[in-house]
Design a protein that fits this description.
heterodimer, A: 626 residues, Penicillin-binding protein 2a (Domain 2), Beta-lactamase, 5-stranded antiparallel β-sheet, 24 helices, 21 strands, 41% helix, B: 388 residues, mainly alpha, 3-stranded antiparallel β-sheet, 16 helices, 3 strands, globular
Chain lengths: 626, 388
C-alpha cells in the first residue's frame, strides 16, 4: 500500500484509533441523549403536576361578574336609587405603552379637565398596573362611539358598558339616600372584597347607601374564561351568576319628600315629618341638598370647594347632625315636668310684666310690655317666657332633664344614618363635669325656655312632638321598613304621663294655632276640615347685650343672615285624631311662627291630603251637613 | 491489494441503478418518519396544512431529491472540490458580512432573488468536507503533530468568527464544536483537547469580562446567557420564552394533551412554536412518549451514521460520515436542551422538524453525503485525484 492510497488497512493503528474515537463520540452522544431523556422525565413526570397547574393558570382567567347594586325605594316601592347603563372608558396602565400620550389623545376626544387628569394619573401611580383605571364615565353615545372608532390607536384603552347609580330627585333625597363614589386606594388597603377591584365599582359613602352598603352590594359572580397569551378571551369555561344586592325600602314617601324639599326653597335647615304611631319618617329633608351624582364619577375639586365653602353647608345633614337650642318648643316638656310633679296645676297663674330678676341677672320676656296674668294654656299659646322662668325655677333642672330624656332628647335614635348627633340635655352633674361650675338659678330659667345649654336635632324634636301627639308613647323613629327579608320592628311603649296632664299640653298647642292670640294663628290650616296643633320656637345665636336692649333689640330682618335667630316649629295634626307630627328648623329664619310654622303647616296639609283623602271627604260631608 | 483490486473496480464503475440499490433505505425511511413528525406538529400549529405543513412537505420532497443527487454523485467529484467548496462558503460569509440583508437582528442571508442562501449553513458542511480532506491527506503521525494542527484550527476559527460576528452565536459555536469533533476523529492527540478544555473552563470568567467590557457580544446575546442562568429573574422579559416552554413541556406529562390540544401552544403562550420551540409543542401534545419516539428516531439516524463511518474504508469517507452525524447530533441536542432550559436560547432549529428551508437543505445534503459515503465506502481516493 502506497502512502497515497488512503484506504485503511484493517487493524492498522489509524483504524484502531478511529474506531476508538468514533465509539467515544457515539458514547458521548448516548450520554448527552440520556441527559435529555432524564430532563424530559424530570419535567414531564416528576414536575408535571406543578407545570400543569401553571399551564392552567396561564390559560384560565377568572373574571368577576359584578352584581347589580340593590335599589333603594320609598314606602310605595318607587325607586329612589337605582342603576342604569353607563358607557365608560377604562385604561389598563400596563397595557398602555405611553400613558401621557394616550391621555393627551383621550383629552382631545372626551374633554377631560385638569381634575380628571389628576385623578387618573394618581390612580395610575398608586394602583397595581394590571387593574383598570376609569378614564371617563357617563359618556354620551357620541363620545363613546368616537373612542370605539379610535381604539386601534389606543392600546390598553377599553370601552365598556357598565352600570352606574342614578338618583330620583337627587337634591331632595341626598341626605337620606346618600351617595356612592369610586373605590379609593385606601379602601383597597382596608378591604379584601375582590369586587372593589372592578373598574367603576362604587362604595356607599353616606346615608342609606353607606349604612346598607354591604346589603346593597350583592355577591359577585364569576366567570372562568380561557384566554390566550395576549389576554384575549377564547371561550367561557364556566359561569356563576352574580346575586344582585338587596332592595332597601324606606319609610319615606317620595312625593312628600320632594314637596318638603321644594317647600324649604332656598332656606337652610331640617324638616322631619313622622307618623306618630309607627315612627315612620315620611319626609326627611336637610336643606340645601346637593346632587349626589356628582360623587358618582369622582367630584371635581371646583365642585367640592363650592360645596365646602357654601355658608348654608349643603353637605351637613342638619336633620340628624344639626344641633339647635329648641327654644320655646321645649316649653311643652317643661310644662309637663311641672304638671307631672304636681308643682303647679294648669290653673296656676304667674304675672308677666316683661321681665324678672334673679340674683344679679335680669331675664326678659320676648314681649317687652308683658303678658299680664297667664296660666299654662295661655303661656303655651302666647309662648310667655316669664311663666316658664317661674315654672323652671320651681321644678329644677333634674326633673326637666329627666322629662326631656323621656321624650327622646339627648339620645341617638338609630335610623341607620351615619353621623347622628345626640344633642344635649344638661343637668347639674354635666355642668360640673364639663364646665367645672355648679348649676345656677339662671341656668334653670334659660332651660325653662329651651335655651342655654340645651341642644336638639330636628329629628329629636320630631320624636318629642310625636310622643306628645300620641299621648305619651315612646315611639322610635324608623327610616327603613325593610331590607331583603328583614323587617325593622316598630314599638311604642308608654312613657307613663297622666292623660289629663297631656291633655293640658295638647290644648295649649292647639291654641297656638287656633286662638287669635296664638303665636301660630296666622299659619293655621284654612283649606282642610282639620286643625293642627303646634309650638313655635326661636333660638338666639347671639347674645343680646344690655346696651342693645336699652336702645331696642334689633329686628332679625335687620341683622346679617348668620346672626338671625333660628326659627323652629313643632306641630301635629289632625288635632282630633293625631296622626302626623312635624319638626321644622329654619336656620337663621327669624321667628319660629313666621319662618317655620308655614312650612310645618304645608307639610302636614300635604301629608293629610296624600294619606287621608277619605277622612277629609268624610269630614267635609260632616261640615256641610251641620 | 489483490483483495481490494476487483472490489474497487466494481464500485468505481457502477451504474446509477446499482448505486441506488446500495442506498441505505432504512436511513431514508427513518429520516422520512422524522420529517412526518414535523408535518404533524406543523399541521397542529395552524390547524391545517396551510401555511406551514404543506410548504414543509414540498421542501422535504425537494430535499430528498437533493439528497439522492448528492448520494449518487461520485465521491471523487466531491473529494476533489472540497477546498473550492470551502473557499466559496467563506467568500459567501464575507459577502453576507458586507452586504447581508438584516433579518431577525442578524445578517445571515444572501438574497439571490429566487433563493435565500444562509452561508453559515453552507459552511457547516464545507468545513466537515475540508477537514475530512485535510486529515485524509495526512498520516496518523502527521495528524498528531502540532504543526499539522495549525491549518485545521484556522479553518475552523475563521468562519466561526465571521458567523459569531453576524451575530449568530449558536451557529458559530456549532461550527466550533463540529470542527473540534473532526479534529478529534482526525487523530489530534487527546491531550490537546483536555488541555484546551481546562484552559477554556478557567478562562470563562475572564472571557466574559472581556466580552462585556469591549462590547464584543451584542446585548441580546448577553441577555440570553444571563437569562439562561437566572430565568426566574425576568419572567415577562427574556426569561418568558423558556418559562413558557418548560410549562408547556411539563404540563404535557407522560401522555400529552392530545393532537391539537396543547393549550400553551394554541393560546400562544409558547413562542416560535413552528421553528425553534417545535419540540416543546410535540412534548405538550404527545407527552414524554412522543418525545421519546422522536429521540429514538434520531438515535437510529446517529447509529446509521456511526455504522456507515465504521464500514467505510477510507479516511475521507469516515470523517465525512461522522462529521455529518455529529453536526446532525449537535442540532438535535442543542435544540432540545435549549427548549428544556438546559442551554441558553441560541436559535438552533430541530433538524427536519422545525419549519424552515435552509437548515433542512443543509441536513438533507449532509445526509446525501452520508449515503454517498455508504455507496462509495470502498472508493479509492488518493492525492492523485486532487486537482493540483
Amino acid at each position: 500500500m502506497e502512502r497515497g492510497m488512503k484506504t485503511f488497512q484493517a487493524g492498522s493503528e489509524r483504524d484502531k484509533q478511529f474506531t476508538r474515537r468514533a465509539l467515544i463520540i457515539g458514547g458521548g452522544q448516548v450520554a448527552l441523549l440520556s441527559t435529555l431523556v432524564a430532563r424530559m422525565y424530570y419535567l414531564q413526570v416528576v414536575e408535571a403536576d406543578q407545570y400543569r397547574t401553571l399551564a392552567e393558570e396561564n390559560r384560565i382567567s377568572m373574571r368577576l361578574l359584578p352584581p347589580t347594586r340593590g335599589n333603594i325605594v320609598d314606602r310605595n316601592g318607587a325607586e329612589l336609587a337605582g342603576t342604569r347603563l353607563d358607557y365608560r372608558v377604562t385604561m389598563v396602565p400596563e397595557q398602555v405603552p405611553d400613558v401621557e400620550r394616550t391621555l393627551a389623545y383621550l383629552t382631545g376626544h372626551l374633554d377631560l379637565d385638569e381634575d380628571d387628569l389628576t385623578r387618573i394619573v394618581r390612580q395610575v401611580n398608586h394602583q397595581r398596573s394590571f387593574l383598570p383605571v376609569t378614564v371617563a364615565e357617563n359618556l354620551g353615545w357620541a363620545d363613546f362611539a368616537r373612542i370605539n372608532v379610535h381604539l386601534a390607536d389606543l392600546p390598553g384603552v377599553h370601552p365598556d358598558a357598565g352600570e352606574t347609580r342614578s338618583y330620583y330627585d337627587g337634591e331632595a333625597f341626598a341626605h337620606v339616600v346618600g351617595y356612592v363614589s369610586p373605590v379609593s386606594v385606601r379602601d383597597l388597603q382596608n378591604n379584601d372584597d375582590p369586587l372593589l377591584e372592578l373598574p367603576g365599582f362604587k362604595i356607599g359613602r353616606s346615608g342609606i347607601e353607606r349604612s346598607f352598603d354591604l346589603e346593597l352590594r350583592g355577591t359577585a359572580g364569576s366567570s372562568q374564561m380561557e384566554v390566550n397569551a395576549y389576554g384575549r378571551t377564547i371561550r367561557e369555561l364556566s359561569r356563576k351568576d352574580s346575586q344582585p344586592g338587596e332592595t332597601v325600602r324606606l319609610t319615606i314617601d317620595a312625593e312628600l319628600q320632594s314637596f318638603a324639599h321644594r317647600r324649604m326653597g332656598k332656606e337652610s335647615g331640617g324638616v322631619v315629618l313622622m307618623d306618630i304611631h309607627t315612627g315612620d319618617i315620611l319626609a326627611f329633608v336637610s336643606a340645601p341638598g346637593f346632587d349626589p351624582s356628582l360623587f358618582n364619577v369622582g367630584i371635581s375639586q371646583k365642585e367640592w370647594d363650592a360645596l365646602l365653602s357654601n355658608i348654608r353647608k349643603p353637605l351637613v345633614n342638619k336633620v340628624v347632625a344639626g344641633q339647635y337650642p329648641p327654644g320655646s318648643t321645649f316649653k311643652t316638656v317643661v310644662g309637663l315636668a311641672a304638671l307631672e310633679d304636681g308643682i303647679i296645676t294648669a290653673d296656676d297663674e304667674f304675672f308677666c310684666n316683661g321681665k324678672m330678676t334673679l340674683g344679679k341677672g335680669e331675664f326678659h320676656c320676648w314681649k317687652r310690655q308683658g303678658h299680664g296674668h297667664v296660666n299654662l294654656h295661655h303661656a303655651l299659646e302666647q309662648s310667655c317666657d316669664i311663666y316658664f322662668y317661674q315654672v323652671a325655677r320651681r321644678v329644677g333642672v333634674e326633673k326637666i332633664a329627666r322629662m326631656a330624656r323621656r321624650f327622646g332628647l339627648g339620645e341617638v335614635h338609630d335610623i341607620h344614618i351615619a353621623g347622628q348627633k345626640a344633642g344635649l340635655v344638661p343637668d347639674e352633674a354635666w355642668k360640673l363635669a364639663t364646665l367645672g361650675e355648679s348649676w345656677q338659678g339662671g341656668d334653670n330659667l334659660n332651660l325653662g325656655i329651651g335655651q342655654g345649654f340645651l341642644l336638639a336635632t330636628p329629628l329629636q324634636l320630631a320624636v318629642m312632638v310625636s310622643r306628645i301627639a300620641n299621648g305619651g308613647l315612646a315611639v322610635s323613629p324608623r327610616l327603613v321598613i325593610q331590607h331583603g327579608d328583614h323587617v325593622e320592628p316598630v314599638s311604642a311603649p308608654p312613657i307613663g304621663i297622666r292623660p289629663e296632664n297631656m291633655a293640658q299640653i295638647h290644648s295649649g298647642m292647639e291654641a297656638v294655632m287656633n286662638s287669635v292670640h296664638g303665636t301660630g294663628y296666622r299659619s293655621r290650616i284654612l283649606d282642610l276640615p282639620f286643625e293642627m296643633a303646634g309650638k313655635s320656637g326661636s333660638a338666639q345665636v347671639r347674645r343680646i347685650t344690655k346696651a342693645e336692649r336699652a336702645q331696642g333689640v334689633i329686628d332679625n330682618e335687620d341683622l346679617e343672615w348668620q346672626l338671625r335667630d333660628h326659627a323652629l316649629f313643632t306641630a301635629y295634626a289632625p288635632v282630633a285624631t293625631p296622626r302626623y307630627a312635624v319638626a321644622v328648623v329654619v336656620e337663621h329664619g327669624g321667628g319660629g311662627s313666621t319662618a317655620a310654622a308655614p312650612v310645618a303647616r304645608d307639610l302636614l296639609v300635604e301629608a293629610m291630603k296624600r294619606f287621608m283623602p277619605d277622612d277629609i271627604a268624610a269630614a267635609r260631608d260632616e261640615k256641610a251637613r251641620t | 491489494m489483490s483483495m481490494n483490486g476487483p472490489f474497487l473496480t466494481r464500485t468505481e464503475h457502477r451504474s446509477i441503478g446499482g448505486k441506488l440499490s446500495e442506498i441505505s433505505w432504512g436511513l431514508v425511511l427513518t429520516v422520512t418518519l422524522i420529517a412526518c413528525v414535523g408535518f404533524g406538529i406543523l399541521y397542529s400549529v395552524s390547524g391545517s396544512f396551510d401555511p406551514w405543513a404543506d410548504r414543509q412537505m414540498v421542501r422535504f420532497g425537494f430535499g430528498l431529491l437533493l439528497m439522492t443527487a448528492v448520494a449518487l454523485t461520485s465521491l471523487k467529484v466531491w473529494f476533489q472540490s472540497v477546498y473550492v467548496f470551502y473557499g466559496v462558503a467563506l467568500v459567501l460569509l464575507v459577502v453576507v458580512e458586507a452586504f447581508g440583508r438584516i433579518g431577525m437582528g442578524a445578517q445571515r442571508w444572501i438574497d439571490l432573488g429566487f433563493i435565500q442562501i444562509q452561508p453559515s449553513e453552507v459552511m457547516k458542511l464545507a468545513l466537515v468536507l475540508a477537514l475530512a480532506r485535510y486529515y485524509h491527506d495526512r498520516t496518523l503521525e502527521e495528524a498528531r503533530q502540532f504543526r499539522h494542527m495549525i491549518i485545521p484550527v484556522f479553518l475552523i476559527l475563521l468562519p466561526a468568527g465571521l458567523v459569531i460576528h453576524q451575530p449568530d452565536l449558536g451557529t458559530g459555536l456549532l461550527i466550533i464544536m463540529g470542527g473540534t469533533a473532526m479534529l478529534f476523529l482526525g487523530g489530534v492527540k487527546a491531550r490537546w483537547f483536555i488541555g484546551t478544555g481546562l484552559a477554556g473552563l478557567v478562562s470563562v470568567p475572564v472571557a466574559w469580562k472581556v466580552l462585556t467590557r469591549y462590547d464584543i457580544l451584542y446585548q441580546h446575546q448577553m441577555n440570553r446567557i444571563l437569562t439562561f442562568l437566572h430565568p426566574e429573574d425576568d419572567p415577562l422579559g427574556a426569561g418568558y420564552h423558556i418559562m413558557q416552554s418548560k410549562i408547556a413541556l411539563g404540563s404535557g406529562g407522560i401522555h400529552g394533551k392530545g393532537f391539537m390540544q396543547g393549550t400553551q401552544a394554541h393560546l400562544n403562550f409558547l413562542p416560535e412554536k413552528q421553528t425553534d420551540f417545535i419540540f416543546t409543542m410535540l412534548g405538550e401534545e404527545f407527552g414524554l412518549i412522543g418525545g421519546l419516539v422522536l429521540l429514538a428516531l434520531y438515535s437510529i439516524v446517529f447509529a446509521y451514521g456511526i455504522v456507515i463511518a465504521m464500514q467505510c474504508r477510507h479516511t475521507f469517507g469516515r470523517l465525512v460520515a461522522l462529521g455529518v452525524t455529529v453536526t446532525f447530533f449537535l442540532y438535535v441536542f442543542i435544540n432540545i436542551a435549549m427548549v428544556m432550559g438546559l442551554l441558553p436560547v441560541v436559535g438552533v432549529p430541530l433538524p427536519l422538524v422545525s419549519y424552515g428551508g435552509t437548515a433542512m437543505m443543509t441536513l438533507m445534503i449532509g445526509l446525501g453525503f452520508l449515503l454517498n459515503v455508504r455507496i462509495h465506502r470502498d472508493a479509492s481516493l488518493s492525492r492523485a485525484d486532487t486537482i493540483e
